[in-house]
Write a structure and sequence with these properties.
By secondary structure, this protein is of the alpha/beta class. The chain has one domain: Rossmann fold, CATH 3.40.50.1580. The protein has 6 helices and 10 strands. Strands 5-8-7-6-9 form a 5-stranded mixed beta barrel. The mean pLDDT is 93.
Length: 244
Protein backbone atom coordinates (compact mmCIF):
# COMPACT_ATOMS: atom_id res chain seq x y z
CA UNK A 1 0.00 0.00 0.00
CA UNK A 2 2.84 2.39 0.77
CA UNK A 3 6.02 2.69 -1.27
CA UNK A 4 9.00 4.74 -0.08
CA UNK A 5 9.67 7.75 -2.29
CA UNK A 6 11.45 11.07 -2.36
CA UNK A 7 9.18 13.82 -1.07
CA UNK A 8 9.24 17.47 -2.08
CA UNK A 9 12.31 19.22 -0.69
CA UNK A 10 14.19 16.04 0.13
CA UNK A 11 17.74 15.58 -1.20
CA UNK A 12 18.99 13.33 -3.95
CA UNK A 13 21.73 11.26 -2.34
CA UNK A 14 25.08 10.13 -3.74
CA UNK A 15 25.04 6.43 -4.56
CA UNK A 16 27.40 5.44 -1.74
CA UNK A 17 27.09 6.14 1.96
CA UNK A 18 27.26 4.95 5.53
CA UNK A 19 24.34 3.88 7.74
CA UNK A 20 25.42 3.98 11.39
CA UNK A 21 23.27 1.95 13.76
CA UNK A 22 24.53 2.92 17.22
CA UNK A 23 23.46 6.34 18.60
CA UNK A 24 26.83 7.23 20.13
CA UNK A 25 28.69 6.45 16.89
CA UNK A 26 26.17 8.37 14.77
CA UNK A 27 26.57 11.41 17.02
CA UNK A 28 30.38 11.23 16.82
CA UNK A 29 30.38 10.91 13.03
CA UNK A 30 27.91 13.77 12.62
CA UNK A 31 30.21 15.99 14.66
CA UNK A 32 33.19 15.10 12.46
CA UNK A 33 31.33 15.59 9.18
CA UNK A 34 29.86 18.96 10.08
CA UNK A 35 33.42 20.32 9.96
CA UNK A 36 33.77 19.17 6.33
CA UNK A 37 30.97 21.32 4.98
CA UNK A 38 28.46 18.47 5.01
CA UNK A 39 24.86 19.52 4.54
CA UNK A 40 22.38 18.26 7.14
CA UNK A 41 18.87 17.09 6.25
CA UNK A 42 15.89 15.94 8.32
CA UNK A 43 15.93 12.17 8.80
CA UNK A 44 13.44 10.70 11.26
CA UNK A 45 15.00 10.86 14.75
CA UNK A 46 18.59 10.89 13.51
CA UNK A 47 21.04 12.54 11.14
CA UNK A 48 21.39 12.60 7.37
CA UNK A 49 24.46 14.42 6.15
CA UNK A 50 25.69 14.71 2.57
CA UNK A 51 29.43 15.30 2.18
CA UNK A 52 30.32 17.12 -1.03
CA UNK A 53 32.95 15.79 -3.37
CA UNK A 54 36.31 17.49 -3.55
CA UNK A 55 38.60 17.80 -6.53
CA UNK A 56 41.20 14.99 -6.44
CA UNK A 57 39.84 13.86 -3.06
CA UNK A 58 37.05 11.47 -3.86
CA UNK A 59 33.38 11.50 -4.66
CA UNK A 60 30.52 12.72 -2.46
CA UNK A 61 28.87 10.37 0.02
CA UNK A 62 26.25 10.43 2.76
CA UNK A 63 25.99 9.38 6.40
CA UNK A 64 22.74 8.47 8.15
CA UNK A 65 21.80 7.23 11.60
CA UNK A 66 21.27 6.09 14.25
CA UNK A 67 18.85 3.25 13.55
CA UNK A 68 18.61 0.68 16.35
CA UNK A 69 16.62 -2.52 15.79
CA UNK A 70 15.37 -4.06 12.57
CA UNK A 71 12.17 -1.98 12.11
CA UNK A 72 13.98 1.35 12.51
CA UNK A 73 16.99 0.21 10.49
CA UNK A 74 14.74 -0.89 7.61
CA UNK A 75 12.72 2.33 7.79
CA UNK A 76 15.95 4.30 7.41
CA UNK A 77 17.35 1.91 4.79
CA UNK A 78 14.23 2.11 2.61
CA UNK A 79 14.28 5.90 2.72
CA UNK A 80 17.95 6.07 1.77
CA UNK A 81 17.26 3.88 -1.26
CA UNK A 82 14.28 6.04 -2.23
CA UNK A 83 16.58 9.09 -2.10
CA UNK A 84 19.08 7.48 -4.48
CA UNK A 85 21.39 5.29 -2.42
CA UNK A 86 22.54 2.11 -4.13
CA UNK A 87 25.68 1.11 -2.23
CA UNK A 88 25.35 1.25 1.55
CA UNK A 89 27.96 0.41 4.19
CA UNK A 90 26.49 -0.39 7.60
CA UNK A 91 28.41 0.09 10.84
CA UNK A 92 27.16 -1.47 14.06
CA UNK A 93 28.01 -3.49 17.14
CA UNK A 94 27.50 -7.18 17.83
CA UNK A 95 28.01 -9.73 20.57
CA UNK A 96 30.43 -12.66 20.22
CA UNK A 97 29.06 -16.20 20.32
CA UNK A 98 32.39 -18.05 20.22
CA UNK A 99 35.43 -17.85 22.47
CA UNK A 100 37.82 -17.10 19.57
CA UNK A 101 36.18 -13.71 19.05
CA UNK A 102 36.68 -11.02 21.68
CA UNK A 103 35.56 -7.46 22.45
CA UNK A 104 37.19 -5.09 19.98
CA UNK A 105 37.42 -7.62 17.15
CA UNK A 106 35.94 -6.69 13.78
CA UNK A 107 33.49 -8.85 11.84
CA UNK A 108 32.34 -8.70 8.23
CA UNK A 109 29.07 -10.65 8.37
CA UNK A 110 28.32 -12.76 5.32
CA UNK A 111 24.80 -14.09 5.88
CA UNK A 112 22.35 -14.10 8.75
CA UNK A 113 20.12 -16.33 10.81
CA UNK A 114 16.91 -14.29 11.02
CA UNK A 115 15.19 -14.20 14.40
CA UNK A 116 13.52 -10.83 13.83
CA UNK A 117 10.08 -9.96 12.53
CA UNK A 118 10.81 -7.50 9.74
CA UNK A 119 12.35 -9.79 7.09
CA UNK A 120 9.26 -11.95 6.70
CA UNK A 121 7.37 -9.02 5.17
CA UNK A 122 9.70 -9.03 2.14
CA UNK A 123 9.19 -11.84 -0.41
CA UNK A 124 12.81 -12.92 -0.78
CA UNK A 125 13.47 -16.64 -1.13
CA UNK A 126 17.26 -16.76 -0.68
CA UNK A 127 18.85 -16.51 2.74
CA UNK A 128 19.82 -12.99 3.90
CA UNK A 129 23.35 -12.25 2.64
CA UNK A 130 25.49 -9.14 2.17
CA UNK A 131 27.16 -8.04 -1.07
CA UNK A 132 30.31 -10.10 -1.64
CA UNK A 133 31.78 -7.34 -3.84
CA UNK A 134 31.30 -4.59 -1.28
CA UNK A 135 32.42 -6.94 1.49
CA UNK A 136 35.62 -7.58 -0.45
CA UNK A 137 36.21 -3.85 -0.83
CA UNK A 138 35.82 -3.37 2.92
CA UNK A 139 38.10 -6.30 3.74
CA UNK A 140 40.83 -4.88 1.53
CA UNK A 141 40.45 -1.38 2.94
CA UNK A 142 40.50 -2.58 6.54
CA UNK A 143 43.51 -4.78 5.82
CA UNK A 144 45.46 -1.79 4.54
CA UNK A 145 44.82 -0.14 7.91
CA UNK A 146 46.15 -3.14 9.82
CA UNK A 147 42.74 -4.58 10.71
CA UNK A 148 42.08 -8.20 9.78
CA UNK A 149 38.33 -8.75 10.04
CA UNK A 150 36.74 -12.15 10.40
CA UNK A 151 33.92 -13.16 8.04
CA UNK A 152 31.01 -15.47 8.72
CA UNK A 153 27.33 -15.63 9.60
CA UNK A 154 25.65 -13.84 12.48
CA UNK A 155 22.33 -14.22 14.28
CA UNK A 156 19.87 -11.29 14.29
CA UNK A 157 17.34 -11.05 17.11
CA UNK A 158 14.63 -8.58 18.13
CA UNK A 159 14.99 -9.41 21.82
CA UNK A 160 18.48 -8.69 23.22
CA UNK A 161 17.32 -9.37 26.78
CA UNK A 162 15.90 -12.78 25.87
CA UNK A 163 18.97 -14.50 24.42
CA UNK A 164 19.33 -17.89 26.13
CA UNK A 165 22.36 -20.00 26.97
CA UNK A 166 21.01 -22.79 24.74
CA UNK A 167 20.67 -20.41 21.77
CA UNK A 168 24.19 -19.05 22.24
CA UNK A 169 25.70 -22.53 22.46
CA UNK A 170 23.62 -23.87 19.57
CA UNK A 171 24.40 -21.04 17.15
CA UNK A 172 28.03 -20.78 18.23
CA UNK A 173 28.42 -24.53 17.74
CA UNK A 174 27.14 -24.14 14.17
CA UNK A 175 29.80 -21.53 13.39
CA UNK A 176 27.61 -18.45 13.80
CA UNK A 177 30.04 -15.80 14.98
CA UNK A 178 27.93 -13.12 16.61
CA UNK A 179 24.53 -11.63 17.36
CA UNK A 180 23.04 -8.25 16.46
CA UNK A 181 19.62 -6.62 15.98
CA UNK A 182 19.56 -5.41 12.35
CA UNK A 183 21.72 -7.32 9.88
CA UNK A 184 19.34 -10.00 8.57
CA UNK A 185 16.60 -7.45 7.91
CA UNK A 186 18.97 -5.13 6.05
CA UNK A 187 20.28 -8.01 3.93
CA UNK A 188 16.73 -8.98 3.03
CA UNK A 189 15.71 -5.47 2.00
CA UNK A 190 18.94 -5.00 0.03
CA UNK A 191 18.13 -8.15 -1.93
CA UNK A 192 14.51 -7.12 -2.45
CA UNK A 193 15.45 -3.60 -3.62
CA UNK A 194 18.48 -4.82 -5.57
CA UNK A 195 21.06 -2.59 -3.92
CA UNK A 196 24.51 -3.37 -2.48
CA UNK A 197 24.90 -3.58 1.27
CA UNK A 198 27.69 -4.85 3.50
CA UNK A 199 28.29 -4.38 7.21
CA UNK A 200 31.23 -3.86 9.52
CA UNK A 201 30.50 -5.02 13.06
CA UNK A 202 32.61 -4.15 16.09
CA UNK A 203 32.36 -6.77 18.85
CA UNK A 204 31.02 -4.98 21.92
CA UNK A 205 30.39 -7.88 24.30
CA UNK A 206 30.88 -11.61 24.72
CA UNK A 207 28.04 -14.06 25.35
CA UNK A 208 30.04 -17.28 25.09
CA UNK A 209 31.11 -17.37 28.75
CA UNK A 210 29.19 -18.49 31.84
CA UNK A 211 28.63 -14.80 32.60
CA UNK A 212 27.94 -12.01 30.09
CA UNK A 213 31.09 -9.96 29.41
CA UNK A 214 30.34 -6.40 28.22
CA UNK A 215 33.16 -4.30 26.82
CA UNK A 216 31.49 -1.31 25.19
CA UNK A 217 32.08 0.98 28.16
CA UNK A 218 35.87 0.67 28.09
CA UNK A 219 38.24 3.32 26.79
CA UNK A 220 39.93 0.79 24.48
CA UNK A 221 36.59 -0.07 22.86
CA UNK A 222 35.65 3.59 22.36
CA UNK A 223 39.02 4.29 20.77
CA UNK A 224 38.62 1.30 18.44
CA UNK A 225 35.17 2.52 17.47
CA UNK A 226 36.48 6.00 16.65
CA UNK A 227 39.27 4.51 14.55
CA UNK A 228 36.83 2.36 12.61
CA UNK A 229 34.67 5.40 11.97
CA UNK A 230 37.64 7.20 10.42
CA UNK A 231 38.43 4.19 8.23
CA UNK A 232 34.83 3.79 7.07
CA UNK A 233 34.53 7.44 6.16
CA UNK A 234 37.62 7.00 3.97
CA UNK A 235 36.11 3.80 2.57
CA UNK A 236 32.92 5.58 1.51
CA UNK A 237 34.90 7.63 -0.99
CA UNK A 238 36.86 4.58 -2.16
CA UNK A 239 33.72 2.44 -2.55
CA UNK A 240 32.60 4.48 -5.55
CA UNK A 241 32.50 2.00 -8.42
CA UNK A 242 33.39 -0.97 -6.20
CA UNK A 243 30.49 -2.93 -7.61
CA UNK A 244 31.05 -2.01 -11.28
Amino acid sequence: MINPKREKGEPTLPETGLLVLNPADALNIAGVLKKTGARKHFFFNGNLLVVPGEENAGAPFFMAGPAVGSPMAVLAFEKLIALGAGRIIVFGWCGSLISEISVGDVLLPTWAVSDEGTSKHYPVEERPESSSVLRGHLSTHLGRQGIQPRSGPIWTTDAPYRETRDQVENYGGQGVLGVDMEFSALCTVASFRRVEMAAVMLVSDELCHPEWKPGFRTKVFREKSRRLIEILLESCRGAQGAGD
